[in-house]
Design a protein that fits this description.
heterodimer; A: 345 residues; mainly alpha; 14 helices; 0% strand; globular; disordered N terminus; B: 423 residues; alpha/beta; Rossmann fold; six-stranded mixed sheet; six-stranded parallel sheet
Amino acid sequence: MGMNDSGICRDNSFTGRSRIRAGLRIVLFFAAVLLLLALSMLLGPSGIGIPDLQSPSGSAIVSLRFSRLLMGMMTGAALSASGVVFQALLRNPLAEPYVLGVSGGAGLGATLSILGGSGLFVTLGLPVVAFIAAVLTLMLVYGIASQGSSGHPSVYSLILSGVIVSSICSSVIMFLVSTASVEGMHNVIWWMLGSLQPVSSGQQLLSAALILGGLGGIWLLSPRLNALALGREMAHYQGLHADRVLVAGLLFATLLAATAVSLSGMIGFVGLIVPHVMRAFFGPDNRKLVPLAALGGGTFLVVCDALARTILAPIEIPVGVVTALAGGPFFLIILQRRMKQAWIA
Amino acid sequence: MEQAALTFREVSAGYKHRKVLDNVSFSVMEGEFVSLIGPNGCGKSTLLKTAAALLKPLSGVVELFGQDVHRIKPAVRASLLGVVPQKIESPMAFTVLQIVMNGRISSMGRWGALSSSDHDLVERSMIYTDVFGLRDRYFTELSGGEQQRVALAMVLAQDPKIIMLDESISHLDINHRQEVLQILMNLNREKQMTILLVSHDLSLSASISDRFLLMDSGRLIKAGIPAAVLMPDLLSSVYNCDLRVQQDPYTGNLQVSGAVDSLNRRKKLNRSVHVIAGGGSGIELYRRLLIEGYEVTTGVLNRLDSDAEAARALNIEVVLEQPFSPVGNEAIAEALKMIDKADNVILSQVPIGSGNLVNLQLASEALKRGKTVLLAKGIADRDYTEGKAALQLVNGLLTDGAIGWQSIQELMLQLQQHSHSGQ
């Protein structure tokens, strides 16, 4: 703009105090994450505390707890980050993998592959089949919602058709389960309830790779997601390929959600609420929000799982029950106090 | 002003099933301040979207500094052209600074990092639009005027050569509107920024614009200096109402003002009609007659009849009879008084039964007293009297000189004709 460089323009500390406060908050958050993760390593059906590492049973317990921690981190991070992206892209506080039918589609794909496949195909093919099914579902939802509009469906029609397709998917799952063999039924229901029982190491590795890829992709997109918060048109005016960002974001978020579903079943709540809580504390800037929400979602699920396996030991409560029962009231209080920062509508 | 900044060459554009822009050609020169005016729905917003490559033209070419806008990379396009929309909505709690930073989005690095020159641009834009002090406030909490200045700061941060504003200031109150316009004027005068402003405030635009583009129904119908475009006749036909253009004796500014009151004054007719109606057949008649400027009386109607309700609501003088009763002599006498005062008597498409047959006799009495009587045709379908008494009466009236009418439009024409021949 050809203005003189005045002193103030060289000074980039113009966010001053609020920036320090935000930094402090992040440090506290990391400390809390480490503390909670350590705590969850102490909890388990065999008792509270560190087992004797010298004994074979003790080291087995520790390694089991650690692999459940990894499962929880992966699943929680994937669900939460995908929720962040869906909410940012659709500019709607209700958007999440379940509402858009993505989880339902992934669940249907996973059910088919659990019932139909066997052996190696199930363990390695599960995330892939779930992803393909989720993408097909998303395309179906998008296609239905686009009917009658000139190419770009409204958020409301997207969510409405997402809810419809999602219920169709769960009906089909119910039907498949009711006609399956006893063993198949057992497998599917066990998986559907949601659990962080470690899967085979091959599937864990594949899922980890997919989730890391998805998170990385989203993080790369995150500055552009900020621009899309002002709508497709504004993002276009500011020099983005708005539609490309939209499609890439939807694909990455779907990949994350589908992998999480194939890994740990249908665990609700995390993808919807954790992004809101994180936004309430750290603001809506997706560059920060994506990694923080991933970390927060993962930690939250790990803690919930530790509680789920400890409270009624030796009975294990499905982790999805704990996420909503324990997390619900807790997050409600946070959101009520910081509603404004979470989402001004 | 050496070069054309934005050029439309025979551009037609629109949506799937609807062409909005029809063969539009014009140029905006570098450094010009141009206002785009025209009634709602004439295609101004579509023109902006087409200029910003959000819409692809169905035919023709849009050029930015001589290059086809659809061949320019988005990031480069954003450095040439910025668009301030009618209103930006941020659904989340973004701060003002975060919003303005979006203006540099296309020059951000892979990880969303901004260079220090980017930061400088963001800061300067905020200072220029006077929102620097608001930088840590939530965008959604700001007033409309502040939000619009933030939007302008965001677009300025793109460092564009042209800024287009889509009615961005129309909904602001007058001081905020002046404020934003002042900023635009400074940008234009001091930094030779090219500005295309879609505006509804013709007077305000006239005081700051180099040139006007006037659109109507998707066509560009006039381009030129404000005084050449703000012609009362031209504007009145485009905006479909009476408009006056005056020059302010002190500033020399052109003032465009509407003349709403002339509508009523022109239409006052000093002619009265008496309407015989019932059962809802009179409502549309009353409305049209009042709009055309007639004085209207009506009756005899039963209380609770929907026509009676309408007449009361429209402040029409009315003769009433008890509900569900035959019309009595008193009411008839009163109705005849009204008919005596009226120039014409109109019989609506009211169904006739034994209870209101007396209304037809009123019409025939009116004819005898020398009034012009206009009867709705098609009585045969609405005759519920024994022995088709109504049909016979109506046929008798028609042979005695009453005039038949089918549609209200036809009735209005006949009323006019009759008033000319009658006076």
